């Protein structure tokens, strides 16, 4: 069973996935949502069937000082939709502070074309979200 990382946003949702043994994490895709969660939920349903997902790991947008951002409530509503549509799949929240900054640094180091950054930054952020979660569970064993 695999885990799926989700960087949830208004117009784009980054998706990352573990390998079948839950050892590595790789970026999967960025879903263009057009502000419609139904598009995201439909694609997640396809991915859960294709990859046998047992856990969704959703990045929670917390401020640097630890307070909740305006996006937290929106993200929590999305998490509620995940629970309703996928009752058998565990949903975990992970602090996503600095994941977008780290994603931009990674793209800069790799020399990614600036016009392509917008399309992949969310996927890379999802990788960092899922890696953070995987490290957390490895360290708690």
Can you offer a commentary on this structure?
By secondary structure, the protein is α/β, with parallel strands linked by helices. Strands 3-2-1-4-5 form a five-stranded mixed sheet, sandwiched between helices. The protein has four helices and five strands; from the N terminus they run E-E-E-H-E-H-E-H-H. It has helices at residues 37-51, 71-85, 99-110, 114-139, and strands spanning 2-7, 12-18, 25-32, 53-60, 90-95. 30% of the residues are buried. The model has no long low-confidence stretch (mean pLDDT 88). The protein has one domain (2-139): YqgF/RNase H-like domain (Nucleotidyltransferase, domain 5, 2-Layer Sandwich), CATH 3.30.420.140. The two termini are 18 Å apart.
Q: Which value, in Å, is the CA radius of gyration?
A: 14 Å
Helix share bin: 40-55%
Q: What is the count of structural domains?
A: 1
Q: Indicate the CATH class.
A: Alpha Beta
- What are the segments in which pLDDT stays under 50 over at least 5 consecutive residues? none
Oligomer: single chain
Mean pLDDT: 88
Helix/strand structural class: alpha/beta
Largest sheet: 5 strands, mixed
Spatial arrangement of strands, main beta sheet: 3-2-1-4-5
Query: What is the correct CATH architecture?
Result: 2-Layer Sandwich
Number of helices: 4
**What is the fourth-level CATH superfamily?**
YqgF/RNase H-like domain
Secondary-structure element string:
EEEHEHEHH
User: In CATH terms, what is the fold-level topology?
Assistant: Nucleotidyltransferase, domain 5
């Amino acid at each position: 069973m695999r885990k799926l990382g989700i960087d949830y946003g208004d117009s784009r949702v980054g998706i990352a996935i573990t390998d079948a043994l839950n050892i590595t994490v790789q970026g999967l895709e960025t879903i263009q949502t057009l502000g419609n969660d139904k598009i995201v939920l439909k694609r997640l349903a396809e991915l859960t069937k294709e990859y046998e997902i047992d856990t969704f790991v959703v990045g929670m947008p917390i401020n640097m000082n630890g307070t909740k951002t305006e996006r937290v409530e929106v993200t929590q509503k999305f998490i509620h939709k995940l629970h309703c549509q996928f009752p058998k799949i565990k949903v975990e929240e992970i602090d996503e502070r600095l994941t977008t900054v780290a994603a931009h640094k990674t793209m800069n180091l790799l020399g990614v074309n600036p016009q392509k950054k917008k399309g992949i930054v969310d996927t890379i952020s999802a990788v960092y979200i899922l890696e953070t979660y995987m490290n957390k569970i490895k360290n708690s064993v």
